[in-house]
UniProtKB/TrEMBL annotation:
Domain FLYWCH-type intervals: 10-66
Record-given protein name: FLYWCH-type domain-containing protein
Renumbered residue ranges of the record's region Disordered: 198-232
Taxon lineage: Eukaryota, Metazoa, Spiralia, Lophotrochozoa, Mollusca
Pfam families for the chain: FLYWCH
Organism: Pinctada imbricata
Keyword Zinc-finger: yes
Keyword set, alphabetical order: Metal-binding, Zinc, Zinc-finger
Keyword Metal-binding: yes
MF GO annotations: zinc ion binding
Length: 232
């Protein structure tokens, strides 16, 4: 078979680099010129290499001097997927980890699946790298109202409509979120029901914010409760 017909995969490493995976072996980048890359086996004592151009294998070098570890490579792929989802999704990281691990149950429970499961790091062993990955795209949890950062991504809905309708004030900053459609519904509604919670907001320094969820679809974060409060 021509080298270019061999299917290789790439696994994102915890430091943001890539490893090449093929046939139960892992390789790290050794040399690079434009789109040409030479990869060397992850084991320092092994001289096996693969060359790729545009991520397609062009040449296989020496053979490995050790057996492959397909279970370890599969485990790395799972952890890499968790890390990459942690970066782009807002799903809680423990849930992403559970979801990805659960996929192993769909595989036949044979000796290889058991070995993959046994090689997987526990959540507590890998969580720091996961949270680091998320911090690259999600602003840190604000300690004051003034430091809440809302870049464009957090000002729009997933379909690109403006979601942040008002951002006013400093220490008493008020944020109001609603899609244009829902503002129209709210304006047309004969009755508007409001409710509030003091428990949902992230912990911040005083004054503690009081997010108030107006109607079904308009959300505001207020610096303090306005009007009366229920006593029950
Ligand atoms: Zn090797």
């Amino acid at each position: 078979m021509a080298a270019s017909q061999v299917r290789v995969e790439f696994i994102e490493t915890s430091r943001g680099g890539r490893h090449l995976a093929w046939n139960g072996y892992r390789y790290r980048q050794n040399n690079k010129r434009d789109t040409w890359i030479s990869w060397k086996c992850i084991l320092t004592t092994c001289k096996a290499t693969i060359c790729t151009r545009d991520d397609i294998p062009t040449k296989f070098g020496r053979d490995h001097n050790h057996p492959p570890s397909p279970a370890e490579v599969e485990g790395m792929k799972i952890i890499s997927e968790v890390r990459s989802r942690a970066r782009v999704e807002m799903t809680p990281i423990p849930s992403i980890y559970d979801e990805e691990i659960t996929k192993l149950r769909d595989a036949p429970w044979d000796s290889q699946t058991r070995e993959v499961a046994s090689k997987l790091p526990t959540f507590s062993a890998t969580k720091s790298a996961m949270y680091r990955a998320r911090q690259k795209t999600v602003p840190p949890i604000p300690s004051t109202r003034q430091t809440i950062q809302l870049n464009d991504k957090f000002q729009r809905t997933t379909s690109g409509e403006l979601f942040l309708q008002a951002d006013d004030g400093d220490a008493d900053r008020i944020l109001i979120f609603a899609s244009p459609d829902n503002v129209e519904h709210l304006c047309a509604a004969p009755d508007i029901y409001c409710d509030g919670t003091l428990r949902a907001p992230p912990e911040t320094q005083q004054p503690r914010p009081s997010p108030t969820y107006n109607s079904r679809d308009v959300y505001s974060t207020l610096p303090r409760p306005y009007g009366g409060r229920h006593n029950h």
